[in-house]
Amino acid sequence: MAGSNWRVVGIAFGAGVVAAMHIGKLPPAIGAIQTDLGAGLVTAGWIASTISAVGTLTGLMAGGLADRAGPRRALVAGLLALVAGSLAGSLATTPAMMLLSRFIEGIGFTATTVSGGILIARATADADRRRAMAGWAAFMPLGFTAMLLISALMVEAVGWRQIWLIAAGITLLWAGIVLAATGAGDGGEGRRDTIRSLGASLALNLGRTGAVLAALCYGLYAAQHLGMMTWLPTILADTRATGPLAAALVTAMVLMANAGGNLVAAWTLGRGVPIWRLLALGSLGMLLVELLVFNAGLPDALRLSLLVLFGLAGGLIPAAALAAAPVYAPSPALVGVLTGLMVMATNLGQLTGPPLMASARVASGDWSGTVLVLACLALAAIASALASARHERAARAPAALPG
Hints:
mainly alpha, Growth Hormone, Chain: A, globular
């Protein structure tokens, strides 16, 4: 490739932002959904995280299939599945129906985020790929924040069902943009020239211990991050009597700091900072905040500063993890499977984080009871990041090349 195709990168990035909107629409509306559908706190946690179930189960497979079928086709299919799930959710009358609609959205979210990453990897030249993949991580906080604010502003005026319809309309529009603005020559075609079978591709990539450790760190981050972002409006309402809009604005500040962390990571990766170091630093920052932020005697200004630090530190992790895929992939043609591994890991974290926090809150009777769960996740993330250091050095060393 002579140069990077930034038009395709922008379109794929936009698709990721749209997909993340389907996660961000929920937190301000979760109380209304609980009341409307008769869902308890733990059930509401599963409604928040079920969108991640499909990615947990099929992320790896999705990466291989998108590589072969073509990421452009998979991207459009994923966006349409998000439309279908959001429409079904707008009609839900029971918790079970809402869980099913979120499962359909999970199919779309997985297909969109896996194929978007593959399309960006294919559209960028070697010199730009690591930074582009790190910058791709910003799709999540940006999309989450945009829809979080829309949902917070509109949920009381029009109801949560209208928000689900708005999300479906935006997603359908972006699917049309992808079809109209990209073509076969943009790296979106299927690729069958890699190795003999998808199974062999999965086995080869899973043998990359460093990539597995980076994915593990990403998953542990996701459990902490989405758990906090899902319940933060509720935590602020319960402990600080914060109104829905103010709570959404605080959450949006944390998410924008997270996007800032993504960009800082992309810049530092471009200057040669090791991936493992960013993973460890981000996990350590999250741990320090978690140990302090639930202190009841903390001044509000300091609490807000800690929450922003939580977002900024955490933002280093997804950018670094996604940038790891091209480093550990056996060849550029196999980046898709490792991208799928990263998506699978983050979906597993997103699946378990909100219900874990809800369960800890119910068991302890107070949100401060979630500290132990969050701290254990952060410590495990630090350990996996540090363990990946020697594997990253080996992957970058000339001796790692065959022959």
